[in-house]
Amino acid sequence: MAAISFKNVRKNFYKVEVIRGIDLEAVEGEFLVFVGPSGCGKSTMLRMIAGLETISAGELLIDGVRVNELGPAERGAAMVFQSYALYPHMTVAQNIGFGLRMAGMPKAEVQREVQATAETLQITSLLDRYPKQLSGGQRQRVAIGRAIVRRPKVFLFDEPLSNLDAALRVQLRIELSKLHEKLKTTMIYVTHDQTEAMTLGDRIAVFNQGRIEQLGAPLELYQRPVNRFVAEFLGSPKINILPFTANSSASTLTLGGQLEVTAELFGLGPEALAKGRTLGVRPEHFELSQNGIPARVDLVEYLGDCAVIYAQIRGLDEMFTIKIAQQQVPVSSGMQIFLKPVKGEVMVFAEDGRCIR
Ligand SMILES: Nc1ncnc2c1ncn2[C@@H]1O[C@H](COP(=O)(O)OP(=O)(O)O)[C@@H](O)[C@H]1O
Ligand SMILES: [Mg+2]
């Protein structure tokens, strides 16, 4: 177990700064998730912890000790990649035991450790197989086994489930959670999948262009995002964004430059309305009503437990999504509906994207 601290860490590739002053503390034993769009610097962050990438400026500490100058082997970090990177000519047992053998551990002991690890991951029946005889999910378990067996101080996962199909991703996600509960080792997990981030993390750091937009517990980020970027990144279907202007007395809002509605509908005070430029309403925070924002239904998706309505609001380019319980769906394509936001759940974003309510 280890705590990891970034102190104003920067990383340049030639003249391009891709990590732009990160201050971050991973608490000992926590499951910390890095999430963000492709290219925002998540892998670079992990590679700097692992010692696979130099640090251009700032300090990286593991358990309070500066590790900037330490090589990968001296850091006690084990990394699991998206591509499993198993040795094709070695059996599963040999793959898992490889690092221990290289470190000079006696053969019998290696065998014991490999066996124990395989039991943890429920892959004992696969120990004599070769990687090409395994499914994707099995290969990734072996890759995880190879990391666990070394008893690292910290696990680094770089999108380990991205190559797997949806059902298997869910299964392995649950297994990883259990593994963390059992080992209680600090884990840092990179993903661009917001569902993985929401379900796995004790805390989530949302990255954008080499900076952290927000760090916090999953629900905190979901319910109280600091800005539009975080609000839009977390949540599926995505939060609905409505550009608006308020009249001088803040009694009327014009949505998308065309549609006038009463400000009362959103339950917002004059201050938020004066400074705000866009409203954010999550799909589950719209109700169907007799009056409200008029919209036309494009499509209804029935998901079993709920339905997602895709609708068009006059003057707004983007499709709207509304998520409601299945039995409440008296609508079909082409129908006119009225939407009412749940008061108290509406977010307001300023010109610069900051959430001001
Ligand atoms: N070895 C490298 N040389 C030059 N640029 C790199 C290198 N590795 C990553 N980058 C750049 O750094 C940025 C962050 O990359 P990365 O950390 O891989 O992002 P992510 O994992 O979030 O998708 C990207 O713009 C990428 O092109
Ligand atoms: Mg990456």
How would you explain this protein's 3D organization?
The protein has two domains: 229 residues, P-loop containing nucleotide triphosphate hydrolases (Rossmann fold), CATH 3.40.50; 114 residues, OB fold (Dihydrolipoamide Acetyltransferase, E2P) (Beta Barrel), CATH 2.40.50. It is α+β, with helices and mostly antiparallel strands. Helix 2 packs across helix 3. Helix content is 25%, strand content 33%. It contains nine helices and 20 strands. The longest helix has 18 residues. Strands 6-7-8-3-9-10 form a six-stranded mixed sheet, with helices on both faces. A five-stranded antiparallel sheet has the order 13-12-11-14-20. Strands 15-19-16-17-18 form a five-stranded antiparallel sheet, with no helix packed on it. The site of magnesium ion has 2 residues, from helix 1.
Could you provide a short overview of the structure?
This protein is α+β, with helices and mostly antiparallel strands.
